[in-house]
């Protein structure tokens, strides 16, 4: 499948918890006009995922996928790096600067990897406590 000239972000309509939401955010931050193709995150995705794999839009059958600069790009963290580099705002001028940018980026990777478990634990803790506000306040 040949990518279009337009910038198109393919991602779910998942809200802030979805890994592609940060790609939406950075596109907006950089004021890049893009078509925001949103998909339902439900059992309709399995069929579409297969079609997109066959068409070469999504190698792994997952989203986000960004069509940009004549490429079909995937993987949300490399996408963030790509967009930041394109804006001249990622790498520094030395190996140390580059390490620093990668290290900060990888803190996000660690945080993101822990997020599902953290949210599950928070949900459980809240459901076990009748006074949710007090519970949260006691943790701050
Ligand atoms: N390593 C990929 C993972 C992408 C991923 O798992 N996307 C999820 C939504 S956040 C997805 O496509 N789920 C549907 C599926 O697995 O079929 C990335 O970082 O972009």
TrEMBL record:
**Pfam families, per database record:** GST_N
Please indicate which superkingdom the organism of origin belongs to.
Answer: Eukaryota
GO biological process, alphabetically ordered:
glutathione metabolic process
Look up the signal peptide feature and give its range. Answer: none
| SUPFAM superfamilies per the UniProt record, alphabetical | Thioredoxin-like (SSF52833)
Question: What's the protein called, per UniProt?
Answer: GST N-terminal domain-containing protein
Where the record annotates domain GST N-terminal, the positions are: 7-91
Molecular function (GO) terms for this protein are:
glutathione transferase activity
Matching InterPro entries, A to Z? Glutathione_S-Trfase_N (IPR004045), GST_superfamily (IPR050213), Thioredoxin-like_sf (IPR036249)
């Amino acid at each position: 499948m040949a990518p279009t000239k337009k910038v198109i972000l393919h991602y779910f309509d998942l809200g802030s918890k979805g890994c592609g939401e940060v790609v939406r955010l950075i596109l907006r931050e950089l004021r890049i006009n893009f078509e925001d193709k949103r998909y339902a995150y439900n059992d309709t995705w399995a069929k579409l995922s297969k079609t997109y794999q066959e068409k070469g839009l999504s190698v792994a059958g997952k989203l986000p996928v960004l069509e940009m600069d004549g490429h079909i790009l995937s993987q949300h963290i490399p996408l963030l790096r790509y967009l930041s580099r394109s804006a001249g705002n990622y790498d520094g001028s030395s190996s140390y600067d580059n390490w620093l940018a990668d290290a900060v980026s990888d803190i996000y990777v660690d945080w993101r990897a822990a997020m599902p478990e953290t949210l599950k634990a928070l949900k459980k803790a809240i459901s076990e406590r009748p006074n949710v506000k007090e519970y949260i306040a006691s943790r701050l």
